[in-house]
Design goal:
The protein is mostly beta strands and 106 residues long. Helix content is 0%, strand content 48%. The chain has strands at 25-31, 35-36, 42-49, 54-59, 63-65, 70-74, 81-90, 96-105.
Length: 106
């Protein structure tokens, strides 16, 4: 007696969760103009993806006006020359990324 068994070798496909969709990615930090007069303001925009993002802005000199992904910068009196502005983006898991941009106040 000959017994033949057919066995299927189909492997069930496992669904792999997409862990990259929630991962923090700080894509860009843009400024509306990189040179301004002492009495002008400029807008800065941080573009990032991730979950529950928070933004922290810091300027060497002058004032950051607003909060979130878009803020304005206004130089303080006597702020002449190069000013570095930094944005740090933090996600819900505590990961963070920073970018900075230099502007010139005349």
């Amino acid at each position: 007696m000959l017994f033949v068994a057919l066995v299927s070798c189909n492997k069930e496909e496992e669904e792999i969760p997409d862990e990259t969709s929630d991962k923090l990615v700080f894509e860009s930090l843009e400024v509306s103009q990189d040179t301004l007069m002492i009495d002008e303001t400029i807008q800065l925009t941080a573009t990032a993806t991730g979950e529950d993002l928070s933004y922290t802005w810091n300027a060497e000199k002058g004032n950051i006006i607003g909060s979130g992904s878009k803020v304005d910068y206004a130089p303080s009196p006597c702020t002449i020359g190069k000013v570095s502005i930094e944005c740090t983006v933090k996600d819900k898991s505590g990961d963070s990324e920073s970018k900075s941009v230099d502007i010139y106040v005349m």
